[in-house]
Amino acid sequence: MEQRAHFHKKLEELKMQVLRMAALSEKAVHTSIKSYLEFDSDLAEDVIMGDIEINDLENAIDRFNLELLALDQPMAKDLRGIVGAMRITMNLERLGDEAVNLAHRALFLSTRPPLPYNQKMEQLTEVAKKMLSSALKSFVEEDSKLAEQVCAMDNEADELSIKILKQYINDMVTESRIVERGVHAIMAARHLERVGDLATNVAETVIFIVEGENVKHRCRG
User: Fold this and answer.
1) Residue 176 backbone phi and psi in degrees, to 5
2) Contact present, 122 and 167 (Cβ < 8 Å)
3) What is the pLDDT of residues 104-125, one digit of tens each?
4) Separation of alpha carbons 8 and 24, rounded Å
5) Which of 76, 106, 141, 144 has the smallest count of CB within 10 Å of its CB?
């Protein structure tokens, strides 16, 4: 009995570490979006420098996960919790990478004149942030219904990304001087759409942990 209590204490510790990494990744995404929308190079630099901490934390959680698997031989939901933590941390690390990619676009564009206003870009930033916050909340609260809602939002992010691509292409056809900036903006939209994809991956993992159902690649709107 004492051994089980010790094991579940370590599971709680694992969840706390994943939540710490989630908070860092979410902050990186939000800060990179702010740096992009406000042409703030200082914020973009902060995101790039902060990625080291996210990567180090992923390595620490990986070691912790392997220790739990090797020493405690978990079963059923406990095993899904550990496997799920491994999947989620992998996606959190990629979210940090996408934040860094977006920050690099922000750095470049901060040195150039602004592009024509694109309302769809702001909409995509809001959708990406909402998907990520909802996915992380579903993990904290083990809420598979909320996770399913995140999956349903993925199409909205995809459609906005396509509309942004078409609008910037049209702008570049009519104004060749903005081609370089337009390409960076299109790539920025792609990074935001990837944030939505990775949030969906986290949501899929929450459903796996809570329901025991593998909906990988099927949980989309």
Assistant:
1) -65, -25
2) no
3) 999 999 999 999 889 999 999 9
4) 25
5) 76
